[in-house]
Amino acid sequence: MNTKTSSLFTIVLTVVMTTTALTQQQMPDVAIKYEHNLMPVPSFVQFYEGKLKVTQSLTVSTPQYSDARLQAAIDRFLKRMQSRTGLTFGQGIAADATSPTIEIRCSKSGEVIPSLDEDESYELDIGLSKVLLTAPTVVGALRGLETVLQLVSSNRDGYYFPVAKVKDQPRFRWRGLLIDIGRHYEPPEVLKRNLDAMAAVKLNVFHWHLTEDQGFRIESKKFPKLHQMGSDGLFYTQEQAKEIIDYARQRGIRVVPEFDIPGHSTSWLVGHPELGSAAGPYKIERQAGIFEPALDPTRDDVYKFLDTFLGEMAALFPDAYMHIGGDENEGKQWDRNPNIQAFMKEKGIANNHALQAYFNQRLLKILEKHKKKMIGWDEILQPELPKNAVIHSWRGTAALAEAAKKGYDGILSNGYYIDLSYPTSQHYVVDPIPADTTLTTEEQKHILGGEATMWGEYVGPETIDSRIWPRTAAIAERLWSPRTTTDIDDMYRRLSVISVQLEELGLTHERNVDVLLRRLANSKDIAPLKLLVSLVEPVKEYRRGEQRPSTMLSPLTGFVDAARPDSESGRRLRKTVDDFLSDAPRFQLHATDLEKTFKDWRDCQLLLAALIDRSSALHEVKPLATDVRNLGDAGLEALQFITSGQTPPPEWLQAKSELLNEAAKPKGAVELVVVTSVRQLVTAATELPQLKTMSSAEWKKHVSMLASSADKK
Amino acid sequence: MNTKTSSLFTIVLTVVMTTTALTQQQMPDVAIKYEHNLMPVPSFVQFYEGKLKVTQSLTVSTPQYSDARLQAAIDRFLKRMQSRTGLTFGQGIAADATSPTIEIRCSKSGEVIPSLDEDESYELDIGLSKVLLTAPTVVGALRGLETVLQLVSSNRDGYYFPVAKVKDQPRFRWRGLLIDIGRHYEPPEVLKRNLDAMAAVKLNVFHWHLTEDQGFRIESKKFPKLHQMGSDGLFYTQEQAKEIIDYARQRGIRVVPEFDIPGHSTSWLVGHPELGSAAGPYKIERQAGIFEPALDPTRDDVYKFLDTFLGEMAALFPDAYMHIGGDENEGKQWDRNPNIQAFMKEKGIANNHALQAYFNQRLLKILEKHKKKMIGWDEILQPELPKNAVIHSWRGTAALAEAAKKGYDGILSNGYYIDLSYPTSQHYVVDPIPADTTLTTEEQKHILGGEATMWGEYVGPETIDSRIWPRTAAIAERLWSPRTTTDIDDMYRRLSVISVQLEELGLTHERNVDVLLRRLANSKDIAPLKLLVSLVEPVKEYRRGEQRPSTMLSPLTGFVDAARPDSESGRRLRKTVDDFLSDAPRFQLHATDLEKTFKDWRDCQLLLAALIDRSSALHEVKPLATDVRNLGDAGLEALQFITSGQTPPPEWLQAKSELLNEAAKPKGAVELVVVTSVRQLVTAATELPQLKTMSSAEWKKHVSMLASSADKK
């Protein structure tokens, strides 16, 4: 996974391009290496000597096709260019500019309603005097404009575009982000800024998870009790939904609504208990988990209700697909309902899976009537499911491949559960069509793509961005870029730049960390808290609920909410420790780095203690402050042993191991991510007293062994 | 201005209170000093021994009057309490709770439409077992809830309310914030979060400056060309306006719309050139400044137009007042228009002032017809102005007093121009009725209050909060609290806490500084930029435009936009240098502080240079980096001379003075605020070689002289 690939630094020196776009300009013909910040990496990109200067006289022209959507996109593009460069582009857009800086040759609008069939390809030809962007559709042009924005560079002389050629199209047609606003509501402006971010990294499906046990969040004019009684007043009006759909369309993004049934439906039943499989009354669910309430699949009036409701929604949401969820229904209400049991017996329905298949069959007819294709989670894949349904897999690539072999289209979400707090690298290596796939080329066409899933148990408007971004940009790359784009270090390097650029769209993933810490401290002086938060991550999977019980009505303002997945400090420390232990000739340099780091940890406990004493909401952090001091001490002592070549006494290892084990335990639903690195040093200290007498080669060999054993502890 | 006053630490030990509210509970009877963070300071507050613990079983009850507005306010209150304490209040609101934590006794809703006559008073009686909030109106209860939120405190044992009694009402009835969205548009969510912040500091008038030369920002259904052609599409629909008005009403805030005429009206004329005093066509103004276009005051069709348009607006905006601007019309178009000149001759109108008076007379009749009272800037005060008009003074307290003597109500904005980048302390000392007022008690009643003015030349959605907050909280205090509340140090101490609390409402004044710096650096590593930005302020008054030319279409993303008024680092340094120079016995302690500071300055130049080289938008900052290094060097050298008791050579003073003079010059529209402090040290170094032989008293005397002479340089 760590091999440099040609997608990053293309080393082909001579490229014969035959398209019109790439022969328009006199191009310097010597290809060069150029460290770009593109994410997702284009399918083909090549840089050349030379720069196209960006000045305030920059103009954009659209000599061929243009429309309101393209003009609006160019307007946003120019504002973002201005915001980043500080320049004021006096002239802006002029279709007929004689020598535009950026010329967009676009053939047509593309799909009226964004769809799977959209042609998103584009080509860029950046010469010394202009940027030529060629795209068959406006959506292709939008994708190209995002690439142009990512290519803006700067040096002493000002801003510029590097001379380059790009020929780009997505690897997968379905590149989505699911946002669950059922468990916690997010206001429209949160969705809008996330749509902006999606467009920036070329995602094209917003999967709007609109109903959950904990909230029914879309206005129904046919059945107003659904949103009125099922949402605490936190729902989207149909006007707002239309605005979001249009906002997405402006950015070439589809909006796929999800109405999760027959399970996950408590909130439906608050206003309409008659739809349930058990007698009401029902209350909006306040806990996280899997719950019993489910629609009754045996009664005609339930299907009549769904026909009317889904018909209303089918008219509201123009996308060709409708997601019906279908997941995690354990059927406990069904088991206990004698009418349902009698129905099953009568119809010869063997079990709850078969009953749900029956439900889906009838649902499918309703969707067909309203001209929608069905998409649902793995569970919907039952023997009689028609072939035009799409399987959305939370189970994994194997389940997806199996479905593809049976002829079903599918999209992958297993591996892209960004709510689980795993590092970016872990999502990045998940490929909807793994290299070792057994699918034929024809079968592979059924794999439409994937979706990152932002499940809403523990996110609110202040924190959701920090759970989605920047990690989702790497998933977007996996779904857009060639399979060979797999250099993790380079991904992280580019991700860091993209993360900053996302802020210009209003994303709050960086800025709100300090906001939360200041609130916790009730003060602006948060330096020690910032250090501490940089060393932790939220606990993985769904362990937060166990460690720090809360309901959907609890505030999301704790230390764990300020903590973010994929700690950069953790990554840096791992690298420094690796370098220190493997780079004997320069170990003193790394030792100095490490010493400073560990001293900061040791010293922060006192400062933290003062903050914690003043602010009760920080009390849960107190043991972490002790852990960090202990880690700092252990690191300093290990460094001292290693650099002096002395052997630590056996009781030292024993004592440190206990402290390390304690520090490795999560507290307040966060975990210190630097324990492994310190453990690596402590182990090295006990096993490497002979440092000074070792050759560099011996040292490296020894250490690589140590590193792997430290990981296992 | 620096005397501690009884409003902060009331030292009256025995207070006889006769109201119902204050005799409800058994109160500990020993008053104590307690350092609170209330802003604005209540008119009476007294603390006692004891704490009322805040736990998750907190409840609020409203046993007497309640309504939807109060319930919604309590709901917001509980969410903010949760967000700050991390607690989940399981039970929430229950009108009939038997032992509520917070009991709100409210008599009635108050004014249906928020008005000047609203009773905003309330009383708090916080005992060991409950908080009793008594208020004659719901608006009074809202004000009281904000005080309760500011009283939440924390220690090792958790959150609590201090036992206390508060009896509070505003000193002035009109406490406003003007936001000019004409020059730069602000989306509704920006206005909403600012309304939240206004409510938090008990402001009660949102003055919505809706039209300007640079933008006509309210939808007119009668004359749609106004907003369609005058706003670049950036306007508020009437639906949005209603939403804002309701949002404000929910918070007990009036919305006073301003339609600035006859001048400041270019944007009106883009769609309706026939209203102008010169032939069109007109274009939306893109520059800052005062411009010629003005409505033609001589033509009946202009008044007919205004009658229809203002009638439409009068129906939309329920407030009793309508602001008609009336400022800064120089009448140049009038001078050049022969028809207007002929009209003046015919009617015996002597000059443009008289012509504007004529215009206002006719306008007044229109407003009367639509049942609105007129408010306008100083200029409207002409001999025949009827007494029910209100004068809004940008000229000052003298002009306001003069109007009051003539019988006119007035509000003050001179001194509260927060767009001028002056420090909070400067606004804080401005009193609408100064201590030396010559107005009689009866005349003083005409002074209704004041308004902070956020003029929009240089603010956008990302930066406007940082220009309004936290400084406006101190103006809010001036308009609410007793005149005797004047301790500037204590104001700054409380302001710093309130500033953090405002963030929980979504305000971005703190968080967006780093966002702007990261964008400028195109990187997350911004430590040296943060240091630099902490040492500067935007240039004062309207000098930004001279130093850094821009238009209304220019980006607001420069270093100057990240800089904020009223540098905290500047204030701290002034204090440390004062302490160092006046506190001889402990000078070594201060010297160590100063040395660290100056070394950081000296060392940041190299780091800054690397950042600046990579990011062209930062080039304008380069000379500042040099200045800061020079200041650091000068500070270190001066320290060295002072602490060693050596006399610096005369050429040293000469050289340093030149560097200081250079550093004092603004660059990129920001100015270093630490130059005076360094100059003070340099001067001290040349004049105080005899340090070691001086007595403490001699030293202090000498230094106070020096300090005042350094300021003059």
Q: State the largest interface.
A: A-B, 48 and 48 residues
What integer is the average pLDDT of chain A?
Answer: 92
Radius of gyration of chain A using CA atoms only: 28 Å
Distance between the termini of chain A: 24 Å
What is the count of helical runs of chain A?
Answer: 26
How many β strands of chain A by DSSP? 21
User: Any idea what the shape of chain A is?
Assistant: globular
Unreliable stretches of chain A: 1-23
Please summarize the sheet with the most strands of chain A: 9 strands, mixed
How much of the sequence lies in strands of chain A comes to 5-15%
Helix content of chain A: 40-55%
What do these coordinates show?
2 copies of one chain form a homodimer. Chain A is of the alpha/beta class and 713 residues long. Chain A is 43% helix and 14% strand. In chain A, strands 1, 2, 3, 4, 5, 6, 7, 8 and 9 form a 9-stranded mixed sheet that branches. In chain A, strands 14-11-10-19-18-17-16-15 form an 8-stranded parallel sheet. In chain A, helix 7 packs across helix 10. The first copy, chain A, is globular and about 80 Å long. The interface between A and B is large, with 48 and 48 residues.
